[in-house]
Amino acid sequence: MPATRLKQFLDVTNVKYVVTQHSPAYTAQQIAAAAHISGWDIAKTVIVVVDGALAMVVVPASGHVSLQHLRQWTGASDITVATEKEFSVAFPDCELGAMPPFGNLYAMPVYVDTSLHGLRLTFTAGTHRELITIDWNDFERLVEPVKGNFMAPLADNNRSEHNAYLAKGGHR
User: Fold this and answer.
1) Helix (H, G, I), strand (E, B), or coil: what is residue 14?
2) Which residue segment(s) compose the domain that 71 sits in?
3) Domain annotation covers residue 131
4) What CATH number did the domain enclosing 154 receive?
5) What is the pTM of this model?
6) I need a surface site. Which of 62, 130, 132, 161 has the fewest CB within 10 A?
7) How many C-beta neighbours within 10 Å does residue 124 have?
8) What is the distance between the alpha carbons of residues 23 and 81, in angstroms, rounded to a whole number?
9) Is residue 172 part of a domain?
């Protein structure tokens, strides 16, 4: 079972977590819909190649990674979004595209957008049918992510959706 490694790690480190089952979904927005959760409340993991090495970038499911911001933050000369072929072997215990944002379990750095700082994080747990939610403090302690502004500016329609979410009491 793909989520076993992550759950064992969380259990060994005494982290409380909640598991949410949902119907199969493959994109971050589909997952949010299947789990009946706002896309602003799910953290998606995007695998990138930073000067030849794999890394994780974590942003809200409704957002997009800014490679320009990441390049400026890291000082890297070359950053691209990794292809499935480039990263599939790095996650042998995960379904393709369902990697949890725990780079420490896969020997790669994690860059987390500041919009997620301090929140309860909900993310894929290695499958396309399961989410895990943990407190930010536990995530930060275990993963030691680099925090920065890694999300692309919101498009007008996405900004309107985000503002409506905030007006309804959303927490971003």
Assistant:
1) coil
2) 4-167
3) yes
4) 3.90.960.10
5) 0.85
6) 161
7) 29
8) 27
9) no
